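Hi, here's the filled form for the chain we discussed.

Project: internal
Contact: R.S.
Residues: 68
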Amino acid sequence: MIAGTAPAGPSPWKEADEMLTLLIKRAAQLIHCRAGSAEEEEFNSLANAIEAYEMKRWPAAPRKAACR
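And the returned structure, exactly as it came back:
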């Protein structure tokens, strides 16, 4: 296999992307939860998991320094 090419067969991200969709749907249900509630704790955990997944799945391109 050539470095940087996708393996043959189904996308290795398919199942993970489907799980991400479920996490986002649950987070959307909790977005207006009461501060200090168990739901807020769940929302924060979901938000952290979603952010970590997105950083791994779609890493940001290096940014060039702005000109001054």
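Let me know if anything looks off before we file it.
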